[in-house]
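User: Earlier you gave me the apo prediction for this protein. Now I'd like the version with coenzyme A bound, so I can compare the two side by side. Same sequence as before, with the ligand SMILES added.
Assistant: Got it. Here's the input I'm using:
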Amino acid sequence: MPPAFVHPTAVIDPGANVGDDARIWHFVHVSAGAHIGEGSSIGQGCYVGNVQIGARCKIQNNVSIYDGVHVADDVFLGPSCVFTNVQHPRAHVSRKDSYAKTVIARGASIGANATIVCGDRGITVGEFAFVGAGAVVTHDVAPHALVVGVPARQVGWVCACGERLAARAGGQSCHRCAASYEIVDDNLRVL
Ligand SMILES: CC(C)(COP(=O)(O)OP(=O)(O)OC[C@H]1O[C@@H](n2cnc3c(N)ncnc32)[C@H](O)[C@@H]1OP(=O)(O)O)[C@@H](O)C(=O)NCCC(=O)NCCS
Ligand SMILES: [Zn+2]
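And here is the structure of the complex with coenzyme A:
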């Protein structure tokens, strides 16, 4: 695999680990403890803290990934989406030792300008879940769930391919790739 492309305006702190074939665009800052997986792309103006980013992720412009956020493989982060790691911040109280965790699981997508509020105990956006543009996520999102709005509520299910699923007798199916799923205990399972 070709080595990473790093635009000359990006700042990669010594110690950061950038995988093969990754692309780091204009004015990005990558912290010393960061790990960016193979083939991932980090858009213009992003900040990557001491965090792990999986392989083949697409991170659009102006996303700050603070300490405490974990991004798995094949994740899409839309432009200007926002993460948080302190639920009750105060400028004069240091919370550095108690950052809440946010996990964005494999294959999930976060829409443009969405905000993920970490809560006190952290938050997980499940595998292949889809957060609509502008949503404010305050609870865990189930795998394959589609959530929108403020606060975000589930309005449907999404296929691994990204298409919204249509209800059919006994389950859900995808018009785009023909995958079929069933719902068991409020969770989507591939058939
Ligand atoms: C949530 C989303 C996946 C829904 O797409 P869809 O299934 O094609 O939905 P539709 O456009 O047919 O809209 C269905 C309804 O949901 C509403 N809706 C769509 N997106 C919404 C959003 N982000 N938040 C709140 N409501 C939304 C629509 O207004 C519509 O409501 P109506 O039936 O009352 O008119 C999509 O709108 C979205 O937000 N995608 C993310 C886009 C993005 O951020 N891309 C980043 C890369 S550029
Ligand atoms: Zn599909």
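For your comparison, keep in mind: The pocket of zinc ion (ligand 2) is lined by residues 159, 161, 163, 174, 176-177, 179 (CB under 6 Å).
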